[in-house]
Structures are given as structure tokens and as C-alpha cells.
Amino acid sequence: MHRQEAIQALIEARLASLREASEKRDVDALMSWHAKDAVFTDVVNGISREGIDAIRQFYTQAYTAMPTFRITEPKVTGFTPEFVTAEMRCEGEAVMDLPHAGLKAGETLRLIGVSLFWWRWEGEGAEWDESLSDEAVRGWKIVRERSYYNFTNKGSQ
Predict the structure, then answer these.
(1) With 0-12 CB in 10 A as exposed, 13-18 as middle and 19+ as buried, what is 30?
(2) Rg (CA), the chain
(3) Euclidean distance between CA atoms 103 and 92, whole angstroms
(4) Kind and range of the H or E element at 138?
(5) Which residue, of 26, 35, 86, 130, has the greatest Cβ tally within 10 A?
(6) Where is the SnoaL-like domain (predicted)?
(7) Is pLDDT above 70 for 156?
(8) So what's the pLDDT on residue 101?
(9) φ, ψ dihedrals at 22, nearest 5°
(10) pLDDT, tens digit (0-9, with 9 covering 90-100), for 19-73
(11) pLDDT in tens, 78-134
(12) Torsional sign, CA 147, 153, 154, 157
């Protein structure tokens, strides 16, 4: 059984890296956190992507349409390394019309979201040894994510 202090530090390290990749719109950095057989589901739109190539394509399109993005007030809850919830507020500017989101180019999207993450150890050794080295933290891969969100304020400012 892992110590809660180590689990919480691991969760925070993973979140910080995921947030940085998302805000920088760095698809390669984001994909480095996903297992090859990962599944991403946008529950709101009923969209599911299976496998790292399909997830990469999804994020490439999303990042192209909305090249600036900020995540504020992130809160994570997790008591095991394998399952974590993340709550956040997000904001980004569309550079093209996004009819499914009710946005026109130049408008700002604001939302409150929750993502559920299932993680799997793929690092060295049979299991995580509670190390917080970059190599050990990156030994964890997302195998499933379910994303829920609600638009809070759409339009130009």
C-alpha cells in the first residue's frame, strides 16, 4: 500500500505536467502521458477516441481551433495512483468558427469541467516504488479519460 503523501505528490506532479502541455498546446507532450491503448471520451458530445493515434488527431484539431487556452482553479482528488478526478475552469479563444460549441472565430469559450482519469503503471519494475523522479512519475500512463463540462460564458469580451 502506498503512502498518501507519495500518492498526493505523484498526482500533483502529473497534473502540473498535463496542465503545462495543455496550456502550451503541445500535442506531443500531452500524448507522452497516454498509453498506446488509451481511450478518451468527451461525454458531453458523445465522442470517443480509442488508441493514441485517434486521441492525437482529436487534440491536434482542438489545439488548431483554439491555440490559446488557460486552466484555472484546478482541483484534483485521488487516493490511489490509478484513479484521479480533476475539476477545473478553462478559457480559450477560437480562431475559427466552432458551431458545435456555438462559437465564432475570435470569441472566447469559458467552461467548468471535470475529467476522470484512470492510470496504469508502465514504468520500470513490476510496480511504482513511490519515487517522484521524472522517470518514475512518467512511468504512469493515462489509459482512460472521461471529460464532462458545462459552458459558463461564451462570446467575445
Answers:
(1) buried
(2) 16
(3) 11
(4) none
(5) 86
(6) 20-120
(7) no
(8) 79
(9) -70, -45
(10) 999 999 999 999 999 999 999 999 998 999 999 999 999 999 999 999 999 999 8
(11) 999 999 999 999 999 999 998 877 889 999 999 999 999 999 999 999 999 999 999
(12) negative
Give me the amino acid identity at 59. Answer: Y
| Residues comprising the chain, all counted | 157
Chain-centroid distance, C-alpha 153: 21
For residues 87 and 67, is the Cβ–Cβ distance under 8 A? no
Element (H, E) at 131: none
Q: Please report, as a single letter, which amino acid is at residue 57.
A: Q
The 3-class SS string of 35-83 reads EEEEEEEECCCCEEEECHHHHHHHHHHHHHHCCEEEEEEEEEEEEECCE
